[in-house]
Amino acid sequence: MSPVVVVGAGPVGLTAALCLCALGIEVTVLEKRGRDAVRPGSRALFVHNDSLQLLDRAQRGLGTEIAEHGTTWHTRRTLFRGREVYSKTYRKPTGAELPPFASLRQIDTERFLLRAAESAGADVVWDADVTRVSATDADVTLEAGDGRSWRSHYVIAADGARSAVRSAVGIALAGSRALGSHVVVDVSAGARPRPLERSYHYAHPALSGRNVLTVPFTGGFQVDLQCRPDDDPDDLTAEAAVARWIRAVVDEDEIGDVLWVSHYQFMQVIAERFVDASRRVLLAGEAAHLFPPFGARGMNSGMADAEAAARAVGLALTCGKRTSVEDYDRVRREAARRNSWAVGAALRHVAPPSPFGKMKLALAGWLAPHVPKIGEWLERAPYGPRRPPRPGGRGRY
Questions:
Q1: How many CA atoms lie within 13 A of 267 on its CB side?
Q2: What domains, with CATH codes, occur in the chain?
Q3: 390: left (phi over 0), alpha (psi -120 to 50) or beta
Q4: Residue 113 and residue 51: Cα distance in Å, rounded?
Q5: pLDDT reading at 44 higher than 50
C-alpha cells in the first residue's frame, strides 16, 4: 500500500507529488496518458511568483530554473479601437529575485515538474487510466481499465476537468458555462522577434470589433481572440482563417509556425465538496474547479491546491490529524469561490452583459487617452481584481 496516490501528472498532480516528497511521504502518481503522449490544446502559460516560490519550497531551485527558462515581459500595452490608451514599462527584477511570473508553454512547465518529481522519488505510472474508486474510512482502492489496482491511505485527485475520480466518488460541480468563447493560437517566433510586451486590444477595428490579447512565451507568443456570441468557431479556427486574421494582429515577419489552435467555451464551476465522504479523497486543480483564464487563476490556483492538499495529507498521516483534510476542504473551496468571483468580474468587463455596461466601456475607451486613471482601469480590468483568495491566506490564489 502506498501512503498517497496522486491521480494526474499535469502541473497540479506533479506539484502535489513534489510537495509530498518534500515532506518525506512516499507517493505514486497515476497518469492515463503514455509518457511520450502529446498533450493537446493551448493551455496555461503563466507561472506566477507565488507558484515559483511554492516550487522553490518543494524543491530548492526549481522555481528559479523555471523562471530562467520562461519569458518575463516588462511592458503592458492596451489599445481601444486602434488607439493606445495605456502603456507602462516596469523595472526588471534583480538577479537575486524571482520575477513576477514566468511565461512558458504548459508542456515545458510539465517537463520541469516531471523531472523534479522523479528525482525527488515520486513513482510515476503511465498508461494508468483510473476507472473505479472505492473509498472507505480506512483506505482507498483505485482500479485501472486494464485490471491493475492500487491501495493507499489518501488520494489527491488532480485528473482535470473530466475527473474520473471526482465522478467515481459522487462529487458534483456547481456553476455554469461562462459567457462567450475564445479562440487561442500558439505561434512560434518568426524572422523578427515580437517586442516583449503584453498587449490587450479592445474592439480591434481589423477584427470586426472583437477583443484580442497577445502575450509572449519562450519561443513564441499566444493570441487569444474573444468570439462574438454569433460566431461560428470553424470560421475562426480553420487554417486559412487563422492565417488571415492573425496577420491583422501581428506583423507578417513576426509569425513563425502555428503550433496549436484551440476553441474554448469557458466554464465557471466549483465542486460542491473538495473532499469525499470518507475524507480520504481530496480534489485539486481542475478536478475541483474550472475558471476562465483571466488573471492566470487556473493552473496557479491548482498549484496552491496541490501544496495545501499535500500539507493536509501530511498532517493526517504523521500526526493523526484527520481534521486537516476537512480544513483543506473549507479553505480551498473558499479560495475557489473568491477566484471565481474575480474571473466573473473580468468577464463582465470584457463582455458587458447589459447596455449600461457596454456604454460604460465605450465611454472609458473614448476618455482613456485624456484621463490616465481610466486607461489604467482598462489595462487592469481584463485580468480580474488583484485580491487574495481569502483573508489572511497564503498568496493570491
A1: 15
A2: 2-72+93-177+267-343 (3.50.50.60), 182-264 (3.30.70)
A3: beta
A4: 12
A5: yes
Of 378, 365, 379, nearest to 80 by C-alpha is 365
Is residue 92 over pLDDT 90? no
* Total-model pTM: 0.92
Q: What is the pLDDT of residues 187-203, one digit of tens each?
A: 999 999 898 999 999 99
Neighbours of 144 (CB within 10 A): 17
- Classify 72 as helix, strand or coil: coil
CA dist., res. 63 & res. 171, Å (int): 33
DSSP 277: T
Least confident range from 36-40, 71-75, 195-199, 233-237: namely: 36-40
Instruction: Determine whether 174 is exposed, middle or buried from the number of CB atoms within 10 Å of its CB (0-12, 13-18, 19+).
Output: exposed
* 297-319 helix and 323-350 helix, angle to the nearest 10 degrees: 170
Determine the Cα–Cα distance for residues 149 and 227; give it in Å rounded to an integer.
44
Alpha-carbon separation of residue 118 from 4, 17, 295 (angstroms): 15, 9, 30
Is the Cβ–Cβ distance between 282 and 312 less than 8 Å? yes
157: closest CA among 165, 148, 168?
165
CA angle, residues 27, 29, 34, in degrees to nearest 5: 155
User: For the chain, first and last CA: distance in Å?
Assistant: 33
Are 308 and 331 a contacting pair, CB within 8 Å? yes
The interaxial angle of helices 49-58 and 106-120, nearest 10 deg, is 20
Cell 487574495 -> residue: 388
Q: Helices in 219-296 by DSSP H: which ranges?
A: 233-237, 239-245
Is-contact 248 207, C-beta < 8 A?
A: yes
Burial group, residue 359, by CB count within 10 angstroms (0-12, 13-18, 19+): exposed
> How far is CA 182 from its chain centroid?
15
Torsions phi, psi of 4, nearest 5?
A: -140, 135
